[in-house]
Specification:
The chain has 493 residues and is of the alpha+beta class. It folds into 2 domains: 223 residues, Up-down Bundle (Multidrug efflux transporter AcrB transmembrane fold); 244 residues, Gyrase A, domain 2 (2-Layer Sandwich). It is built from 12 helices and 16 strands. α8 runs antiparallel to α9 and α9 packs across α12.
């Protein structure tokens, strides 16, 4: 028994050292060919950034299937990842909204252009009409004949040609020559037939261009049209806005080409990202945008740290003054609890999640779970004091305190964990990231709190009993015992 206790103590000390190193520093861990920096991942409310709410822009009464909304979310996520944003949050809300949160974003306007635009690229047959860059035109839109993706082809089933785009185009060119709304141009091919798109520079003018390659089906469509329409205009249209209108000089059958226009480098990069990761299956409009400054985030962190430090200090003082030695051991166990939880926030749990993005609600969940862990220790210590007052020997009272408090601790923690799961499902389903963040940190805290209050504190008390078997009961919060034969074995119950 004693040997097992000291082995447990050694493992706890090792765990505390490792977690303390990971929690209190930001090391870079290298395992084989993998390298990872261990750091705190702050959410939007703590480091500042951009929050955008996108709303499906469809006629009233139109039903949007969940698959189309999820496809749109995935495309937006790929676009945002291409921006290099760290820890973005993109999730659906309800049946027709998508929330985009970009912590630490430096250029909100450019970011909105990249992920906000529908990104519907069309190669339009302009015939003998020279279209001007920036014109907004009506097109026949995607169909099974000119698209390489069924999702894109079906997205136009209920739509009618319109002159006004749903979302501002990415090239930012002023519309100087709109085409009459009655004139509808035929869509030859849509952008989903593109295999890849990258930014290149013209060797003569050094102007940015977008070089693209086509999928086999797209190359076939493009080759047939250019072969039959030499000398005519083929407009390149993004979100119903003309970005280029070149003349077909010869058949293009190689499956590659270049989009030319009056692009700046950021605009060319944004357009390449949109084309590379596809068009959205449903049109979206920007419902609201919220910029959160880093000053607000730093102020929130500062106030949270002060509040947390005051709360922990009060709890620690109460535990030490009221429970004395067990209270001191509980405070040490709670310190280990904090180090383990913070380490999980930074490194995650393999197979489940890579890290936890820390937000203000997440901090609230951590503080609440700390209270749950303290509550477990209080139940144990109170039960232990009852056993001592009933005349039980100290070792028996300690073990009985843990054993008889365990059912209450177990049931309360299970109830809290189930509630956390419900909150997590609710937050993930309805786009309430605040609720989800609170639930995740609370779940982690409940599990680790159960470990520290039952296993760690129990190990500490067993070590103290082995080292100081004749210690005064005053150290356990019991002033005196009733007159009773201390040599008797505990009464069986």
């Amino acid at each position: 028994m004693r040997q097992r206790t000291f082995i447990s103590l050694a493992l706890i000390i090792l765990l505390a050292i490792v977690c303390g190193w990971l929690a209190l520093s930001n090391p870079t861990i290298i395992l084989g060919g993998l390298s990872r920096e261990v750091k705190v991942h702050l959410g939007l409310d703590l480091q500042g950034g951009l929050r955008v709410l996108l709303q499906a822009d469809v006629p009233e009464g139109t039903q949007i299937d969940a698959e189309s909304l999820n496809v749109a979310r995935n495309i937006i996520e790929r676009r945002v990842n291409a921006l290099g944003v760290v820890e973005p949050l993109i999730q659906t809300q309800g049946t027709n909204r998508i929330i985009v949160e970009l912590p630490g974003i430096q250029n909100p306007d450019e970011a909105i252009k990249v992920f906000g635009g529908t990104g519907l690229l069309e190669f339009v047959d302009a015939g003998s009409t020279p279209l001007t860059e920036g014109q907004e035109i009506a097109t026949t839109g995607p169909s099974s004949a000119n698209s390489c993706s069924p999702a894109v082809a079906q997205s136009n089933a209920a739509a009618t040609p319109t002159v006004s785009p749903t979302i501002t185009s990415t090239n930012g060119v002023t519309n100087t020559n709109p085409i009459a709304s009655t004139q509808v141009f035929t869509t030859v091919m849509t952008g989903d037939c593109l295999e890849n798109a990258t930014v290149v520079f013209d060797q003569t003018t050094n102007q940015p261009q977008i070089s693209f390659t086509l999928k086999p089906q797209g190359a076939e469509i493009f080759g047939k049209h250019t072969a039959n329409n030499v000398g005519k205009y083929l407009a390149i249209v993004l979100d119903k806005t003309v970005i280029s209108s070149p003349v077909i000089n010869s058949p293009i059958t190689g499956g590659s080409g270049v989009i030319q226009g009056r692009f700046t480098v950021p605009e060319a990069n944004a357009l390449a990202v949109q084309l590379k990761f596809g068009s959205l299956p449903i049109p979206l409009r920007i419902e609201t945008t919220t910029n959160i400054g880093p000053t607000l985030g730093q102020d929130s962190i500062h106030r949270s740290l002060i509040a947390g430090a005051i709360g922990v200090a009060i709890v620690a003082l109460f535990m030490i003054l009221y429970y004395r030695l067990p209270g001191v051991l509980a405070v040490i166990a709670l310190t280990i609890y904090g180090l383990v939880v913070f380490t999980i926030y930074k490194v995650g749990v393999p197979g489940l999640f890579a890290f936890v993005t820390l937000t203000l609600p997440g901090i609230a969940g951590f503080v609440l779970s700390l209270g749950v862990a303290v509550d477990g220790n209080i139940l144990i210590f109170e039960r232990m004091k009852e056993e001592l007052r009933d005349g039980r020997p100290l070792p028996v009272a300690v073990e009985a305190g843990f054993d008889r408090a365990w059912p209450s601790i177990r049931d309360s923690n299970i109830s809290t964990f189930i509630t956390s799961i419900i909150l997590l499902v609710f937050g993930s389903t309805y786009g309430a990231s605040i609720v989800a963040g609170f639930a995740i940190t609370l779940m982690i805290g409940v599990v680790i709190g159960l470990f520290t209050s039952v296993f760690v504190t129990r190990t500490f008390l067993r070590v103290v009993l082995d080292l100081f078997p004749n210690i005064s009961l005053w150290w356990y919060g019991v002033g005196s015992l009733p007159r009773r034969d201390k040599s008797l074995a505990p009464t069986a119950e």
